[in-house]
Amino acid sequence: MLVLGIETSCDETGVALWDSCRGLLANLLHSQADLHAAYGGVVPELASRDHIRKISPLVQEALGEACVQLPDLDGVAYAAGPGLMGALLVGAAFGRSLAWSLDKPAIGVHHMEAHLLAPLIGADQPPLPFVALLVSGGHTQLVKVGGIGAYDMLGESLDDAVGEAFDKVGKMLGLGYPGGPAVAACAEDGDPVRFRFPRPMTDRPGLDFSFSGLKTFALNTVNAHQPLTGQDRADIARAFEEAAVDTLVIKCRRALAACGCQHLVMAGGVSANRRLRRRLKAQLDAEVHYAEPSLCTDNGAMIAYAGCQRLSAGERTPLHIVTRPRWPMTELLPAILRDNVH
Ligand code: KG4
Ligand code: ZN
Fold first, then answer.
1. pLDDT along the chain (342 residues), means of 10
2. Is the CB of 272 under 6 A from ligand 1?
3. Which of 64, 136, 177, 224 sits CB 3.0–4.6 Å from 268 for a disulfide?
4. In 3-state terms, what secondary structure has residue 300?
């Protein structure tokens, strides 16, 4: 099955072609980071307009790269939520209309389910059930996965997502947008013991997270050390990263123990963080699965892959173009997780 995947939920236009026999045939991404950098964050209207400019040329380019033509497609998958309404509408309107014009099935994909499945692209499937740690700019969630669409929410952030906290700390350190990769790079030169930041909500039972206090702690430290030297920046970035990573590791360990699982799948933009990857591997008594960095952050491949799983299970999205800026993953219905669908 050959599926075109379209991702436009936020500030990246992603287009990919996934073939269930041949694997990933094309995976193109246009990042809007430069467009939004001047504003220190994503400007929704600018994001939608840029998706409109980029979507069609990217689809043409992907088809050319994969040496396939539109009639060769067996289906079209697009991110239908959660995300920015205007941005989602671009990919959904384009993808749904394209599928209609070709008389092929379409599927509106849940962006976080696509993140969750990305580590399985071209890899061995971990045995079910497993625990997934979803860490992106908008979500921090621990999920027990019993199959595609069989998700039990074990815990989530009560306020900021961890990626959002990385972005805000990046901003307060003057590291630009997006902050996550910049904070991680800056932390490399930081002293791990000069500052000790709190590990929020780890001193009580439970699997929920809270990152806004950690962010405020970082802000207070920044304000107390003005003007910041390069070393101050690195030390604060390191202290923040250590605290965020430690917190995630502690909660993952708890979640695995609570579910009796030996496999952890980590996904979403923050799963590209090298310290987090290393610590989870070293400190958990479990096998840790994650995707290559380009498949951790937003991309079209994960949408094509997740769409292929859903289409293979016989699911179809009707002709109405529906997007859901807020869409709890637990509302998804189960599909059959088949061996070797990829
Ligand atoms: O999954 P994603 O691309 O978009 C959303 O669905 O939100 O995640 C983006 C988030 C941003 O907050 C970004 O700063 C963060 O992932 N991120 C990182 C790293 N790479 C991306 N955070 C920490 N370390 C990284 N290396
Ligand atoms: Zn995402």
1. 98 98 98 94 97 98 98 98 98 98 98 97 91 97 97 98 97 94 98 98 97 98 98 98 98 98 98 98 97 96 98 96 97 71 40
2. yes
3. 136
4. helix
